[in-house]
Design brief:
Blueprint (H helix, E strand, L loop, with lengths): L2 H16 L3 H10 L5 H13 L3 H14 L4 H13 L3 H14 L5 E3 L8 E3 H14 L3 H14 L7 H10 L19 H5 L43 H5 L3 E5 L18 E7 L4 E6 L2 E6 L3 E3 L2 H8 L27 H10 L6 E6 L3 E6 L5 H12 L6 E6 L6 E3 L5 H6 L5 E8 L8 E5 L18 E7 L4 E6 L2 E6 L3 E3 L6
Parallel strand pairs: 8-12
Antiparallel strand pairs: 1-2, 3-4, 3-7, 4-5, 5-6, 8-9, 10-11, 10-12, 13-14, 13-17, 14-15, 15-16
Helix pairs in contact: 1-2, 2-3, 3-4, 3-5, 4-5, 5-6, 6-7, 7-8, 8-9
Length: about 500
């Protein structure tokens, strides 16, 4: 089956879903011979909405088999397993969906044709529900606390309700994708399916014959003799920036600001300096050329000359000698004109990329104080500056170091090519910020957000999640861990 046939059936099936005719849509989808991962996903969603769970599971298997990184397919298959009361399998699928988020707060599938955003906090919500169904209430509480920290909007109030239910060891509702949300084909491809008449129907547009029934091109118009012609300026030259000039002599640049030109080239002068250097554009390049190497170009006369036949020289192979000797290179005021031509292209600000629960970028002038950077990042994240902590990677060891005013000179020295990378984390108070603890026991991470460490490792505490969990950094990694597994450096348990 061709791509066009598949696209046509896909569009027809989606239209049936919009008209609430899911049976016809399912029949059309199943008749497609070469099903993509998106089409298998759509089939699985329709079966899931009809509560045909076995068929839905097979369809989601096909979608994941063709695209092993489609997080929303893992999420939907986890919902199907949950409804079949296969809670262990549903937990594995929800964990895989969370892994495919790759640390992002959400995935927006709109560019791929699905008007749905898969949020990390809702995936963790369903992970907690699966843990609760198999009796792991503590793990369920951990998942919901993490979901609460990743919640990006007040609309996720069901996470608070779920946490209250977990504390009472009660089951709470499952988060599901709204019925009818499917992957749709690209609108541009669908528009190309319609037949188009590129030629159209011929018709008479002008005629000097009153009874002319000619249905093709307009007939020839009578010619008038001795009409004075006014040459028009070529539209291409009118649209270009600057004044057109002809190059009289070859110019070889000696600095990177100067531009090489040859006799006969047409350049466009943007600015003429008092020291006879001109800033010009030639072949989409901008540079400096001595103005006495140029001659203003009369576009009207040039156009009229091109319409006349030029007489041949006696020896057409030998070019005519130059009209005058090339002038000397101007030197006075060269630096001033070059600075004026190049200052407009300098970029003073530094681009700072900040890794948080998601990645942001800000623009800031180099050399600013720590408080200025922190306030900018705080405004971008819409979080209080007092709860944020910044880190940067040392240039030699690549180890992350917590930023304070005393290290700002080293931070700005690590800027490469106008770019700086920082890491940001949330703390709950100055008393917990940057506290060092030592591991009493080894801890192995069981979820992507956990921090694993060995007995005796020194951990930097970044924030306090709750009375039982902390967020910290160890061996270049950041994650959460139980407070009972560590003690302060003076021997007191946390």
């Amino acid at each position: 089956m061709s791509f066009v046939s598949t696209l046509r059936q896909w569009d027809e099936a989606v239209a049936c879903v919009d008209q609430r005719d899911t049976d016809s849509a399912l029949r059309i989808f199943l008749n497609i011979e070469e099903k993509s991962s998106k089409i298998d996903y759509n089939i699985g969603c329709l079966f899931l909405n009809n509560n045909e769970l076995d068929e839905a599971e097979k369809a989601f298997d096909g979608s994941i088999g063709k695209d092993g990184h489609l997080a929303v397919a893992f999420f939907q298959r986890g919902v199907a397993f949950y409804k079949k009361e296969k809670f262990e399998e549903s937990l594995l699928d929800f964990q895989q969906a969370f892994k495919e988020l790759r640390g992002n707060q959400l995935i927006d599938y709109k560019p791929l044709g699905l008007r749905y955003k898969l949020y990390a906090c809702e995936v963790l919500h369903n992970m907690g529900l699966s843990h609760a169904q198999i009796g792991k209430w503590e793990r369920a509480q951990e998942n919901l606390l993490t979901a609460l920290s990743l919640r990006a909007d007040a609309k996720f109030s069901h996470i608070d309700n779920a946490l209250e239910a977990i504390l009472k060891q009660k089951i709470f509702p499952l988060v599901e994708i709204q019925a009818g949300l499917l992957f749709k084909p690209n609108k541009r491809y669908v528009a190309e399916l319609e037949k188009k008449d590129y030629l159209g129907k011929a018709k008479v547009v002008a005629s000097v014959v009153p009874a002319d029934q000619f249905s093709g091109f307009a007939p020839l118009q009578p010619q008038v003799d001795d009409v004075p012609s006014t040459p028009k300026v070529p539209e291409v030259l009118k649209a270009l920036e600057g004044e057109p000039h002809t190059v009289l002599y070859k110019f070889v640049p000696e600095t990177k600001e100067e531009l090489a030109v040859l006799p006969g080239n047409i350049v466009f002068v943007l600015h003429k300096g008092a020291d006879h250097w001109a800033s010009v554009i030639f072949n989409e390049k901008r540079g400096l050329v001595p103005y006495n190497f140029l001659e203003p170009l009369d576009i009207v006369s040039m156009t009229s000359q091109t319409m006349q036949i030029q007489p041949l020289n006696e020896n057409n192979d030998i070019p005519a000698p130059p009209r005058r000797a090339p002038p000397s290179r101007p030197v006075e005021g060269l630096k001033a004109v070059k600075a004026e031509a190049t200052n407009s292209e300098e970029f003073l600000d530094c681009i700072v990329k900040v890794h948080f629960q998601f990645t942001i970028a800000i623009s800031i002038a180099p050399g600013q104080a720590y408080e200025v950077i922190l306030q900018k990042i705080s405004a971008k994240l819409q979080l209080p500056a007092s709860t944020l902590s910044l880190q940067y990677a040392e240039e030699d060891s690549k180890k992350r170091v917590i930023i304070e005013n005393s290290v700002m000179e080293a931070v700005w020295n690590s800027v490469k090519g106008g770019r700086l990378t920082l890491w940001c984390s949330v703390t709950e108070g100055k008393s917990m910020s940057h506290e060092k603890v030592v591991a009493r026991h080894s801890y192995e991470a069981s979820t992507p957000e956990d921090l694993d460490f060995e007995q005796g490792d020194v951990i930097t505490v970044l924030s306090k999640v709750n009375d039982e969990w902390l967020e910290g950094q160890c061996n270049g990694k950041i994650g959460i861990f139980p407070s009972s597994f560590v003690k302060s450096l003076n021997g007191d348990p946390q």
